[in-house]
Amino acid sequence: MDKQILPVGNILVRKEIAEIPFKCDLLKCKGACCTFESHYGAPITWDEVNQINQVLSTVIKYLPKAHKSEIEENGFFEVKKDEPLLKSIDNRACVFVYYDNGVAKCAMEKAYFDEKTDFRKPISCHLFPIRISDFGGDVLRFEHLDECQPAIELGKKENTTVAEFCEESLSRLYGKEWYSQFKELIGK
User: Fold this and answer.
1) Domain for residue 53, yes or no?
2) Do residue 103 and residue 52 come from a single domain?
3) Could you report the per-residue pLDDT of 16-36, keeping only the tens digit for each?
4) Which of 119, 144, 164 finishes a domain?
5) Is residue 69 in some structural domain?
6) Cβ distance 142 to 166 under 8 Å?
7) Residue 165, φ and ψ in degrees, nearest 5
8) Does residue 31 sit within a domain?
């Protein structure tokens, strides 16, 4: 087994997730993860498509006019290679982005924190900066992006790693017991 990959149950985790300092600094990055230039939006599951459809009438109220119009005219997702992806506006902002003092934020998450829905946001968004690759099973890796340099600096300052920053999302996806096994394995 590669020493840079840790087996946690049936999930493989690149060791960098336990080592790289990270804590989002939205005031500096301005929500860059929600506005990356790309032809494709965030990956979602078919189950999440259904969950979003159930909360859409609530979430849409938080969106700027252009984003509402896009969803009303063309829907909120597209399918590439048989997989659903969230749409983006002008190949940049996620269709679910709203702006708060110039910071891109998630309308789904806003509705969730306002206790209007029980769906927080897609797991791929919640896990960020962790990405999942499928090599006959999940392999977790850190997504290295220049836009996240402020998060690395804040993680160093506050002594927080990617693994710690993503505790809630990792527990949401794999369960609290899995996360406890992961912490034990990395000595945290």
Assistant:
1) yes
2) yes
3) 999 999 999 999 999 999 998
4) 119
5) yes
6) no
7) -60, -35
8) no
Q: How many structural domains comprise the chain?
A: 2
- The pair of structure tokens assigned to 65 is 């006019």
Which residue type occupies 64? P
Q: Which of 86, 119, 152 is the last residue of a domain?
A: 119
pTM: 0.91
Instruction: Please write the tens of the pLDDT for every residue from 67-106.
Output: 999 999 999 999 999 999 999 998 889 999 999 999 999 9
Which residue range is the domain that position 150 belongs to? 1-22+129-188
Reading the block at residue 115, the tokens are: 């206790």
CA-closest candidate to residue 96, choices 84, 110, 82, 83: 110
Q: Are 136 and 85 in the same domain?
A: no
Within a domain: 124? no
Q: Please give the Cα distance from 45 to 51 (Å, whole number).
A: 10
In three-state form (DSSP H/G/I as H, E/B as E, the rest C), the secondary structure along the chain is CCCCEEEECCEEEECHHHHCECCCCHHHHCCHHHCCCCCCCCECCHHHHHHHHHHHHHHHHHCCHHHHHHHHHHCCEEEECCEEEECEECCCEECCEEEECCEEEEHHHHHHHCCCCCCCCCHHHHHCCEEEEECCCEEEEECCCHHHHHHHHHHHHHCCEHHHHCHHHHHHHHCHHHHHHHHHHHCC
